[in-house]
Write a structure and sequence with these properties.
Blueprint (H helix, E strand, L loop, with lengths): L4 E6 L1 H4 L9 H16 L3 E6 L7 H6 L4 H25 L4 E5 L8 E2 L2 H9 L3 E5 L9 H11 L4 E6 L20 E3 H6 L7 H9 L4 E5 L5 H6 L5 E5 L2
Parallel strand pairs: 1-2, 1-6, 2-5, 3-4, 3-5, 6-8, 7-9
Antiparallel strand pairs: 8-9
Helix pairs in contact: 2-4, 6-8
The protein binds uridine-5'-diphosphate (UDP).
Length: about 240
């Protein structure tokens, strides 16, 4: 395998599948199968899930919610998604543990780097919820932070598209995909890979990001075997 330990970021929106809201169980089970297969191939896995399929603080604020409370609602949404994924993993015999950046025992155990590593080294998937635990951040930043903390070899960002393109491929058919791009180029070309805070954190701490389409079943295994199924973003 190309990597020993990975941090996988799944967006809440992709958990929604073809529905307009909530959790699509086909998509959830497809993720669970791919994750189990990766653990069986010897890879240690930490996961951060978004909450955009349920609630986003910014859209709450635009409707008059207090921003901090709205963000807290968003962080709780990541816990709901994390519980759903842990349940789907356990249903197929893959041990998983939900860790929470905000104390809420017994829903999950309080997160620490060491608790996550202890789980991963014993073949349990560590699902790290609540993003960073603070408002005004995103789960992209949460996953960058956790990837660095848990000493992952790479942060995988599962998206709806096959990688990083010169323009949005869903809008511009002439857009071409990068196999590899540097953080500096992502920033100077203003490419929407992740938000600036998350990108800066990865750049400063030399954490490579691999952007790929996790919704195509089998892509996670291909990526881990070294196939070129997405785009690598790194410092050089
Ligand atoms: N959130 C937050 N702090 C964090 C991570 C997330 O306040 O560290 C809140 C924020 O309101 C965000 C919501 O949780 O809108 C859901 O996360 P995100 O939008 O990143 O989910 P995704 O787009 O990946 O589904």
């Amino acid at each position: 395998m190309k990597y020993n330990r990975i941090l996988l970021k799944l967006s809440g929106e992709s958990l929604m599948g073809h529905q307009g809201y909530g959790i699509d169980s086909d998509r959830l089970n497809s993720y669970a199968r791919q994750i189990k297969q990766a653990v069986e191939s010897g890879v240690q896995i930490g996961i951060v899930i978004g909450g955009g399929n349920i609630f986003r603080g910014l859209s709450g604020a635009s409707k008059g919610f207090d921003r901090v409370k709205g963000d807290q609602m968003g962080m709780l949404a990541t816990v709901i998604n994390s519980l759903a994924l842990s349940s789907a993993l356990e249903a197929i015999g893959q041990p998983a543990k939900v860790l929470t950046a905000i104390g809420m025992f017994p829903i999950g155990e309080p997160y620490s780097k060491w608790k996550a590593i202890e789980a991963m080294t014993s073949g349990t998937v560590a699902i790290i919820s609540c993003g960073t635990g603070s408002p005004y951040f995103t789960t992209d930043t949460g996953s960058a932070l956790r990837a660095i903390e848990i000493e992952a070899d790479v942060m995988l960002k599962g998206t709806r598209v096959d990688g990083v393109y010169t323009a949005d491929p869903e809008k511009d058919p002439s857009a071409t995909k990068f196999d590899h791009i540097t953080y500096s180029e992502v920033i100077s070309r203003n490419l929407k890979v992740m938000d600036i805070t998350a990108t800066a954190l990865c750049k400063e701490n030399d954490m490579p990001i691999y952007v790929f389409n996790m919704d195509k079943e089998g892509n996670l295994a291909k990526m881990l075997e070294g196939d070129n199924v997405g785009t690598l973003v790194s410092n050089s």
